[in-house]
Amino acid sequence: KTKAFIFDLDGVIVDTAKYHFLAWQKLAVSLGITFTHEDNEQLKGVSRVRSLELILGLGNVEATEAQKEEWLVQKNEDYLGYINKMDDSEILPDVMKVLNFLKENNQPIILGSASKNARPILEKVNILHYFDDIVDGNDVSNAKPDPEVFLVGAKKANQTNENSIVFEDSVAGVQAANVAGMISVGIGEASVLNEAKYNFNDFTEISEEFLLELINQ
Ligand code: G6P
Ligand code: MG
To answer: Among its keywords, does the record have Isomerase (predicted)?
Structure first.
């Protein structure tokens, strides 16, 4: 059988959350806003524009559209500074095992990410060629938990939503998959991702038997 295997990027394939944090924190400090690791958790899966609004909200900072635009550009430049130093050592444990197994079994592999930097990141860590299609923040207008990014991904793989499996580390992403009627696999703390159909702390816990079950069910 053939299914669509849709992967989120940040926090699922690579741990870029730490770079988003450093870039947002630099901006927050420059605006006199306290921004903690805990605050950063709330930004997982959240678009760049929405993330800025949440951070400004933390400090009750009001700004013009032009200021916001400037801060968004600044944040992304700082973020890209970290991304440019990435290599394949930053791929999270056993992600390659899973991608290779799916390839061997001729399953479509799709990226479904809110990031507008998805392609350069996949290139930096040398796995762009694993993906049959990429749907990212440049392709959709509705952010997770809206399911648009996954719906487009399933369509590109010519699969129904029921036959699509989504790997996600964010609550918004799990909700998006569920709303679409897809099979959600939460990667991270089960207590946080309790709405997911399946839960694993990371890919080292995902067996070939489990993947075969997903393919054949
Ligand atoms: C992912 C991350 C978010 C990030 C968003 C947009 O969903 O989890 O933290 O804000 O992508 O990323 P971008 O690279 O376009 O700023
Ligand atoms: Mg993520």
So the answer is: yes
